[in-house]
Amino acid sequence: MLKGRHLIEPMDFTNEELEGIFDLADDIINNPKEYAHVCDGKILATLFFEPSTRTRLSFEAAMLRLGGRVIGFSEPNSSSVSKGESIADTIRTVGCYADIAVTRHPKEGAPKLASMYSNIPLINAGDGGHHHPTQTLTDLLTIRSVKKRLSNLTIGLCGDLKFGRTVHSLIKAMSRYENNRFILISPPELRIPEYIRKEILQKNNIPFIEVEKIEDCIDELDILYMTRVQRERFFNEEDYVRLKDSYILNAEKMTRAKSDMIVLHPLPRVNEISYDIDNDPRAYYFKQARFGMFVRMALMAKLLGVVE
Ligand code: CP
Fold first, then answer.
1. Which of 116, 117, 159, 201 lies most in the core, judged by the most C-beta atoms within 10 Å?
2. DSSP calls for 205-228
3. pLDDT at 78 (0 to 100)
4. For 54-58, which contacts have Cβ atoms below 8 Å and span 24 or more sequence positions?
5. Which residues contact 278 (CB under 8 A, 6 or more apart)?
């Protein structure tokens, strides 16, 4: 039962609970009119302390498509946080006005802290380099829809594996399905954090290797998950400039990939995927963004308890 629950990190829900969300998302995709009024009278609050295009707008579109309405702010200077109000007081106040809330925050753990003070379901839309659980739901729904399974997959994760919260959340989630294998592609400076390597991969005997070049492994992959080198997570500009173009996936590299490999990317992209592969049928990143809206519709309907 998901009614009234928060979603702070991907492991908050069991695989069975996730399956329920994905099954509902599939039904919404196939029968959108049946869900057009299930959130009539409900209000979503969007509290974004960091920029966003896809996450915020897909949440807003999701609530509007369910018949509900949206309030919120998209940058902290337009809220009383700029006067020094705590996130705890902010979420307590928002709970007086809205039925469900979603927040993005640059500080790791801020949504978890807020959830302890929230009397309405709170969804983490990304906290620093930590987690981005609804991106993970988006990724899993996309993989399930295209590959028809979430197990027996070789998954390449490429780019900023150190700060990339979407990567951390996806590894955790995909590690719970059988027989998945990871190839971690990054420069030495942006390798996966030690706690993911030890506590998730090694502890659970999940096979993985770490490499520096896409060319060394692209022919083995079922999924290639590209990520951006994130300027906002670096402490100095020099390091960012040195590393920002470490990987550029282009048509030449794609010739070595399997015919059914899929390319995913949480977006936004900067340079890491060349525009010349956007029309390759294996490029799924914009379809992935659309799946994100449907999975957020399913998630909110479940947390609000308006659909079983
Ligand atoms: N994938 C993602 O989180 O995109 P935004 O930063 O645009 O929300």
1. 159
2. T--EEEES-GGGTGGG-SEEEE--
3. 84
4. 54/266, 54/267, 54/268, 54/289, 54/292, 55/102, 55/104, 55/125, 55/126, 55/132, 55/134, 55/135, 55/292, 56/102, 56/104, 56/125, 58/289, 58/292, 58/293, 58/296
5. 286
Exposure string for 164-203, b = 16+ CB within 10 A, e = fewer: bbbbbbbbbbbbbeeebbbbbbbbeebbbbeebbeebbee
Give me the catalytic one of 132, 144, 165, 172: 132
Per-residue model confidence as pLDDT tens digits over 115-137: 999 999 999 999 988 899 999 99
Residue 83 designated active-site? yes
Query: Rounded mean pLDDT of 70-82?
Result: 90
pLDDT in tens, 184-208: 999 998 999 999 999 999 999 999 9
pLDDT at 186: 94
Beta carbons of 39 and 63 less than 8 angstroms apart: yes
Element (H, E) at 105: strand 100-105
Q: What is the mean pLDDT of residues 145-173?
A: 95
Residue spans of beta strands (DSSP E) within 153-194: 154-158, 181-185
Q: Which residues line ligand 1 (CB under 6 A)?
A: 52-55, 126, 135, 266-268
Domains present along the chain, CATH in parentheses: 10-131+292-304 (3.40.50.1370), 134-288 (3.40.50.1370)
- Assessment of whether the complete model's pTM goes beyond 0.70: yes
DSSP, res 77: G
Residue nearest atom 3 in ligand 1 by C-alpha distance: 55
Backbone angles phi, psi at 199, to 5 degrees: -80, -25
